[in-house]
């Protein structure tokens, strides 16, 4: 197999052949500098006219942006290079010459770049963001495997809502109504009763007409559910998990973080335990900051940002009023007006990245919640039966992948954190 740029350190002073594309180039008299990429990384190729001859040198100088090629050369160490290496080119075979590549080094508008997303993801910063996304996914599987979780895949087509909302994409399932899933949680609760600790990782859909920088129509969720686990234990697992993926990004994505000019010190502070604030304490704090907010109102993005700015780490906001939370959340036995739940708010203005709770495990209480929320008992009969046959205390949470990628990458908008974002007015490409 041909070596890749990612493996380049294994081939110092060796002659190798790279399959690659031309990201950019410049020339200085008798030397051409080729910025090469192969999908695993970027490296500079040096073409010296006196070493390669006129024909090859002119071929190198005439290369167009994003042309594909095989490049032969000797790997050399170079402390000035971000990767620590460069390639002294000795041969070049063009595979395909790209003509009039639309994304040039000049500035382009966001809509133009989104229309060319299939090409934009080749650029260095977009490439770095999606590599960080990949590392968070890899670290997620490693963490839950180490902690004894079983991967379970809930259905994407469902007959009802996980949270009783109307923000669902409707479709026909032969002669029945069906919806694209907004969460796999209810199915994972069933799986937890079979396997104890489970998690899912998959796409979810919200038909919310939102245009904010934090929202996507289609996004990916990591959703663990745990039997015999109370609210406090769940919070500990959440902070251990987030700390783990932050460390993995620091350890395995140094070049990507550098390409994004990410302040590493902010990521290094993401270590458990995380500070906690009850909803009551949050209301008092927000009023002290000049917010006009009544007890019982949900917290919006400005509220979350104001709270997060007081901390260097993510902060848990716990014990929200039952009235603004989902039907399945267990009331706090010491104060039944609030739920045993928490949202994890990321620092630097990135907002909520995790929502979680202890789930109701009492059959009669859950049945009462169905009535209060106007939910069909027939549609949820299977979910009720989980409380009928060996019910146990159990908890779970969901982490939004794209918001987490945006936060750890230090970028402003979640639309750059997924290969092909689905936004309110964007279904192309």
TrEMBL record:
Signal peptide: none annotated. GO terms for cellular component: cytoplasm. The keyword Aminoacyl-tRNA synthetase applies. GO terms for biological process: asparaginyl-tRNA aminoacylation. Its main location: cytoplasm. Its EC number is 6.1.1.22. It catalyses: tRNA(Asn) + L-asparagine + ATP = L-asparaginyl-tRNA(Asn) + AMP + diphosphate + H(+). It comes from the Bacteria. It is found in: Cytoplasm. One of its GO terms (molecular function) is nucleic acid binding. Keywords: Aminoacyl-tRNA synthetase, ATP-binding, Cytoplasm, Ligase, Nucleotide-binding, Protein biosynthesis. Residues 130-429 form the Aminoacyl-transfer RNA synthetases class-II family profile domain. Belongs to the class-II aminoacyl-tRNA synthetase family. Homodimer. This is Asparagine--tRNA ligase. It comes from Sinobaca qinghaiensis. The lineage of its organism: Bacteria, Bacillati, Bacillota, Bacilli, Bacillales.
């Amino acid at each position: 197999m041909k070596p890749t740029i990612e493996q380049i350190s294994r081939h110092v002073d060796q002659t190798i052949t790279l399959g690659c594309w031309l990201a950019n180039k410049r020339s200085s008299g008798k030397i051409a500098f080729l910025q090469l990429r192969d999908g695993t990384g970027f490296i500079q190729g040096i073409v010296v006219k006196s070493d390669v001859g006129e024909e090859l040198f002119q071929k190198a100088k005439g290369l167009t942006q994003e042309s594909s090629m095989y490049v032969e050369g000797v790997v050399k160490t170079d402390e000035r290079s971000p990767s620590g290496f460069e390639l002294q080119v000795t041969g070049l075979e063009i595979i395909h010459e790209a003509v009039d590549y639309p994304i040039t080094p000049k500035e382009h508008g966001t809509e133009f770049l989104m229309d060319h997303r299939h090409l934009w993801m080749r650029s260095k910063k977009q490439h770095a963001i999606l590599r960080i996304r990949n590392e968070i996914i890899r670290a997620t599987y490693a963490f839950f495997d180490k902690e004894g979780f079983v991967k379970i895949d809930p259905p994407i087509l469902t007959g009802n809502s996980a949270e009783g909302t109307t923000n669902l994409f409707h479709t026909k399932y032969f002669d029945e109504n069906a919806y694209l899933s907004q969460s796999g949680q209810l199915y994972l609760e069933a799986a937890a009763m079979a396997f104890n600790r489970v998690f899912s990782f998959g796409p979810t859909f919200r038909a919310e007409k939102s245009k904010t920088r934090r929202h996507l129509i289609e996004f990916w969720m990591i959703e663990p559910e745990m039997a015999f686990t109370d609210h406090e234990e769940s919070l500990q697992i959440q902070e251990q998990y987030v700390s783990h993926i932050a460390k993995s990004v620091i350890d395995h994505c140094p070049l990507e973080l550098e390409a994004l000019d990410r302040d590493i010190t902010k990521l290094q502070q993401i270590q458990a335990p995380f500070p906690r604030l009850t909803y009551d304490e949050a209301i008092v704090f927000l009023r002290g900051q000049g917010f006009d907010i009544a007890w019982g109102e949900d917290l919006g993005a400005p509220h979350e940002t104001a709270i997060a700015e007081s901390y260097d780490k993510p902060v848990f906001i716990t014990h929200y009023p039952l009235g603004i939370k989902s039907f399945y959340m267990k009331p706090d036995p010491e104060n039944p007006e609030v739920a045993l739940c928490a949202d994890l708010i990321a620092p630097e203005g990135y907002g909520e990245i995790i929502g979680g709770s202890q789930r109701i495990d009492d059959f009669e209480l859950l049945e009462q919640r169905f009535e209060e929320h106007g939910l069909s008992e027939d549609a949820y009969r299977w979910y009720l039966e989980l409380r009928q046959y060996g019910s146990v205390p159990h908890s779970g949470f969901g982490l939004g992948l794209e918001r987490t990628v945006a936060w750890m990458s230090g970028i402003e908008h979640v639309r750059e954190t997924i290969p092909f974002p689905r936004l309110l007015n964007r279904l192309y490409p």
